[in-house]
Specification:
mainly beta, 2 domains, single chain, Adenovirus Type 5 Fiber Protein (Receptor Binding Domain), 36% strand, nine-stranded antiparallel sheet
Length: 163
């Protein structure tokens, strides 16, 4: 499925009105599809401002939906035994370019498979990259909020406006 980029506009109906024209029904159906259709998958890239990480035998997957100018997206990174974590701050690419950078757009969860999980948040580092922050508002890195290893994971759930 491709992203619905139209504006889900319903016909100007008042209480008690019954949609009658084919265009009324088409607008209603398009709006419902935009909200209910399956999300699309995308392959986010994982980068840093230091030495590049390598997913190796881990997994990195994303999915999203676009309704008009709004994108909802979810990304999950799970480290494998051959994953290397690079150095520097971590970034993930967005499925669709954002309107503007430098705003908080969602929540993140970081799970150390051997100890516990941490909550965090996500921000638009640029119009194409998502930055990850720890609970203490510092960048996620290979050693922050913990030293990453096999089985550890990071998830991000975001909503933002597109260009």
């Amino acid at each position: 499925m491709t992203a619905y980029t139209g504006t889900p506009a319903l016909p100007p109906l008042l209480a008690g009105d019954v949609p009658s024209a084919a265009t009324d029904w088409a607008a209603i159906i398009a709006a419902l599809h935009a909200l209910a259709d399956p999300w699309s998958t995308y392959n986010p890239a994982w980068t840093t401002n230091g030495t590049a990480p390598v997913i190796g035998n881990g997994t990195l997957a994303g999915r999203f939906r676009q309704v008009g100018k709004t994108v909802d997206a979810f990304v999950k990174l799970v480290a494998g035994s051959t994953t290397t974590f690079g150095t520097g701050s971590w970034f993930l690419t967005l499925p669709v370019p954002a309107l503007a950078a430098d705003s908080q757009v969602g929540n993140a969860k970081y799970l150390d498979a051997t100890i516990k999980g941490w909550g965090g948040h996500c921000w638009l580092f640029s119009t194409t990259q998502l930055g990850l922050y720890t609970p203490t508002a510092s960048d996620v890195t290979n050693t922050n909020p913990f030293t990453w290893g096999n089985g550890d994971s990071a998830t991000a759930s975001i909503t933002y406006e597109v260009a």
